[in-house]
């Protein structure tokens, strides 16, 4: 894994100073829920660290290409991913966080003056990942009977069930076909 630690230079301890940092982040696989996201190439990150008077504000982006499986057709697909990196580090234990910030929205700058961007980068990526990964919004998925990819065309079982008697009884919801639902 590439180094995502930033040693805060001494000039950043002066109010209103800022510094720019960039690098790459090797992340082979990121798991979220049942989904796995693969990254064949390292992700590029860039951040600006600004002294806001008593705290360091870290802002920037992380970019790369993710590969996963479609939730409907199960086919692999790639998509670009850009996440917004954000972190807030109080310079000392004596500093008080702004009143509008919760305890989990800031950290204290470690004694060695090194900020580890790894959790900030991961959080930025997780916020941008889709809840349900789809290769296309109009993905037709797979046939529940034979497993054929319906994006490639109709499957053989659809042709066999057309006009065949008794197919409605195979579907447990067929009894609701003529049910008079109220609006």
What this model shows, in words?
The chain is built from 3 helices and 9 strands. It is elongated. The chain has 2 domains: 124 residues, no CATH class; 44 residues, no CATH class. With 183 residues, it is mainly beta. The longest helix has 11 residues. It has a 5-stranded mixed sheet with strand order 2-5-6-7-8. It has a two-stranded antiparallel sheet with strand order 1-9.
Name its key features:
183 residues; elongated; 2 domains; five-stranded mixed β-sheet; single chain; mainly beta; 9 strands
Give a quick rundown of the structure.
The protein has 183 residues and is mainly β. Helices cover 11% and strands 34% of the residues.
Helix content: 10-25%
Radius of gyration based on Cα positions:
25 Å
Strand content: 25-35%
Average per-residue pLDDT, rounded, comes to: 88
- Global shape: elongated
Poorly predicted runs: none
* Amino-to-carboxy terminus distance: 57 Å
Q: Give the tally of structural domains.
A: 2
Instruction: Provide a count of the helices.
Output: 3
Given helix and strand content, the structural type is mainly beta
DSSP strand count: 9
Helix and strand succession? Answer: EEEEEEEEEHHH
Q: Largest sheet at a glance? A: 5 strands, mixed
Strand order of the largest sheet: 2-5-6-7-8
């Amino acid at each position: 894994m590439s180094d995502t630690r930033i040693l805060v230079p001494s000039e950043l301890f002066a109010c209103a100073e800022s510094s720019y940092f960039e690098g790459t982040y090797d992340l082979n696989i990121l798991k979220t829920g049942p989904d796995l996201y693969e990254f064949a190439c390292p992700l590029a990150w860039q951040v600006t660290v600004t002294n806001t008077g008593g705290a360091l504000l870290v802002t920037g982006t992380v970019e790369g290409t993710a590969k996963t499986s479609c939730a409907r057709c199960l086919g692999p697909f790639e998509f670009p991913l850009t996440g917004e990196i954000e972190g807030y580090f109080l310079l000392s234990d004596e500093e008080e966080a702004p009143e509008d910030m919760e305890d989990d929205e800031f950290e204290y700058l470690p004694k060695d003056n090194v900020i580890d961007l790894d959790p900030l980068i991961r959080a930025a990526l997780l916020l941008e990942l889709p809840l349900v990964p789809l290769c296309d919004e109009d993905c037709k998925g797979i046939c529940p009977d034979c497993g054929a990819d319906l994006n490639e065309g109709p499957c053989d079982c659809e042709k066999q069930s057309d006009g065949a008697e008794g197919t409605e009884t195979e579907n447990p919801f067929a009894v609701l076909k003529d049910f008079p639902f109220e609006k």
